[in-house]
Design a protein that fits this description.
4-stranded antiparallel sheet; Thrombin, subunit H; 5-stranded antiparallel sheet; elongated
């Protein structure tokens, strides 16, 4: 039976959980995640976890934050004056907004807190700083490494 190698395109099903057992993501029933191993389409730890798996095999792996969405970085939390917010947006804690970074590229931020004069925005990924556990089942090796 062949094993997954870097460059293979594969289909997997998965369940992602946090340390406390909370499910944060899963593949939809009957639908599989398809990606090319080593192409940087997914977080590093997930990508590495499927290497050497065989079709039908299930593996549970815990991926440290550094190989997932990175460590939580306080430098990605910024305070802006409310006057810099567009008039049509009434910020609320937990709200997700799309803003532009210094290069003009889109960036999703979360409203962390608001005061009378300021809004605190957090550009960290929601899963930053968290170790993630995935139960991964290899469904198919779609194509061999090129």
């Amino acid at each position: 039976m062949s094993k997954v190698q870097k460059g293979n395109t594969v289909k997997v099903s998965y369940i992602g959980t946090l340390e406390d057992g909370t499910v944060f993501d899963r593949s939809k029933e009957g639908s599989f995640l398809e990606f090319t191993v080593g192409s940087e389409q997914l977080i590093v730890g997930f990508d590495r976890a499927v290497v050497d798996m065989e079709v039908g095999q299930t593996k549970t792996v815990t991926i440290p934050a550094a190989e997932a969405y990175g460590e939580y970085n306080e430098e990605h939390v910024v305070e802006v004056t409310r006057s810099r917010m567009p008039d049509n947006i009434i910020p609320e804690p937990g709200q997700r907004l799309e803003v532009q970074d210094r290069n003009g590229d889109p960036l999703v931020v979360t409203v962390k807190d608001i005061t009378k004069n300021t809004v605190i925005l957090d550009a960290n990924h929601d899963l930053a700083g968290k170790d993630l556990t995935f139960e991964i089942t290899l469904q198919e090796i779609v194509s061999a490494a090129q």
